[in-house]
Amino acid sequence: MFVFAASDKGGTGRSVTSSNLLYRSALQGNDVCYLDFDFGSPTAGAIFGIERAENGTATGSGLHRYLLKEVYEPERIDVWTATERRVFRTGHANTGRLVLLPGDVGDGDFPDRADLQDRCLELFLRLNEEFSLCMVDLSAGRNLAVEMALKVTAMPEMQRIPTRWLVFHRWTRQHVVAAGGLVNGPRGLLAIAETSGHNRQDFANKLRYVRTAVIDPAPLTQSGLTAKQGIWLDECNRRLTRLAGDHQVGKNLLLGSVPLDPVLQWQEQLITDNDVASGVANPETRNAFEQLAKRLVDDDSWETL
Ligand SMILES: Nc1ncnc2c1ncn2[C@@H]1O[C@H](COP(=O)(O)OP(=O)(O)O)[C@@H](O)[C@H]1O
Ligand SMILES: [Mg+2]
Questions:
Q1: Could you give the number of structural domains in the chain?
Q2: pLDDT value at position 164?
Q3: Quick one: which of 30, 84, 104, 166 could link to 96 by a disulfide (CB 3.0–4.6 Å)?
């Protein structure tokens, strides 16, 4: 399966959530792969704790250079062995492979050339043979990486491969409106998908939303907030729920929500079971990533949202 992670804005939690989702999927026994298609800012290495690729790879053989045909194969980083955080694997039997294909340090967006699409298709087909789940982290907004992904997934060769699209947004007015616009707007994903050769309705069925850094008003009311703040937060939550419905970003298209976690607020990283056991990260956050990883590949939960 190929999953494309998009967002209208930067800072939505797209990369951190995608990385954690993929990490949980590997712990569940799946061979998984992360493609950093955020060509302007390929920082996924930092989340996986890989210092030499925290800003993209400097070897000159990242995904960007691969697509431009400057190298024969894109660099692959085995996260389990390359990460500085040795505790990643502990306590899990039958862990799958977790591989990062980094972007290139210092490269920007790339030219809109048809041969890049063929190159991208070739890569997707090859990775699909090796991994059960490949996540493609697209940069924010409508850009060439998004357009290329839409064109490549419309190609006949990709039709036998299940593909899904996740749109990430924070639980705020601006983010809800922006996420709806990214998908349904005049130059939104649905429109570009259609001009790229997708059937609009089929494509819409492959797309779900993920809310990130969501404050749950209920428990906070009991700890740290005044009664007035709790009531206001509750009302705010209701307004956002209505707004999300109006912008077609509502509950029936929601794959899952990730709660606001203090660890992620301060540092982009994978949440390990150790982080939870030591009391630093919240168990609800870990559970949310685990649930996302399961729902994503489960046809029944995908269809019955
Ligand atoms: N559930 C969360 N709780 C708190 N902070 C979060 C959460 N998810 C993401 N963040 C933080 O938000 C910031 C933006 O996340 P990032 O994944 O880099 O966004 P994007 O890839 O959309 O630009 C990061 O500092 C990240 O750690
Ligand atoms: Mg990112």
A1: 1
A2: 98
A3: 30
Give the neighbor-by-neighbor strand order of the sheet with 254-259. 77-78, 98-101, 32-37, 133-138, 2-6, 163-170, 207-214, 254-259
Q: Output DSSP code: residue 67.
A: H
Is residue 305 situated within a structural domain? no
Write out residues with Cβ below 6 Å of ligand 1: 7, 10-17, 168, 212-213, 258, 260-261, 264-265, 268
- Rounded to 5 degrees, φ, ψ at 214 are -85, 130
- Tell me which amino acid residue 259 is: P
Q: Which of 265, 266, 290 to mutate to test the pocket of ligand 1 (most atoms within 8 A of CB)?
A: 265
Domain contains 187: yes
Give me the mean pLDDT over the 266-295 stretch.
96
Domain that holds residue 226: 2-300
Kindly state whether residue 279 falls inside one of the protein's structural domains.
yes
CATH number at residue 209: 3.40.50.300
Look at residues 241, 260, 263 and name the one whose alpha carbon lies nearest to residue 252: 241
